[in-house]
Write a structure and sequence with these properties.
By secondary structure, the protein is an alpha/beta fold. It has one domain: Glutaredoxin (3-Layer(aba) Sandwich), CATH 3.40.30.10. It is built from five helices and nine strands, in the order βββααβαβαββββα. The chain is globular. 32% of the residues are buried. InterPro entries: AhpC/TSA, Peroxiredoxin_BCP/PrxQ, Thioredoxin-like_sf, Thioredoxin_domain. Keywords: Antioxidant, Disulfide bond, Oxidoreductase, Peroxidase, Redox-active center.
């Protein structure tokens, strides 16, 4: 699967084998819960990145919206443009009114899904991710 990032670059998930990868889906840029979640990951970035974790946020907003969200909150990780919902569907993430539900997937170094969060608490998400990445 190829992810198109907010800056137009593309990343193949298969090229990340050997690294742990968090792919997290969120409803919309710059909304209350999504902002809390993104800021939590930003604030925990040193620990997450130090644990060797790559982070990709995914929503159905366009690149311009993602770039504004990244700049406003100084997010250190890329956001994936999933305007047609194809990435969400590939991960079996439900779309409601063309908006992804909040779910996260931790992919292990072997390229297999290590853990799934179907219910995400935006405030506690970064700590849960870090604990899972270290296990």
């Amino acid at each position: 699967m190829t992810l198109t990032l907010h800056d137009g670059k593309e990343v193949k998930l298969s090229s990340l084998q050997g690294k742990q990868v968090l792919v997290y889906f969120y409803p919309k840029d710059d909304t209350p819960g999504c902002t809390v979640q993104a800021k939590g990951l930003r604030d925990g970035w040193a620990d997450l990145h130090g644990a060797g974790l790559e982070v990709y946020g995914v929503s159905t907003q366009d690149a311009q919206s993602h770039q504004a969200f990244i700049q406003k909150y100084e997010l250190p990780f890329p956001l994936v443009v999933d305007a047609d919902g194809a990435v969400a569907r590939a991960f079996h993430v439900p779309l409601r009114n063309d908006v992804a539900t909040r779910q996260s997937f931790l992919i292990g170094k072997d390229g297999k899904i290590k853990q799934v969060w179907l219910e995400v608490d935006p405030k506690e998400h970064a700590a849960a991710i870090l604990a899972a990445a270290k296990s």
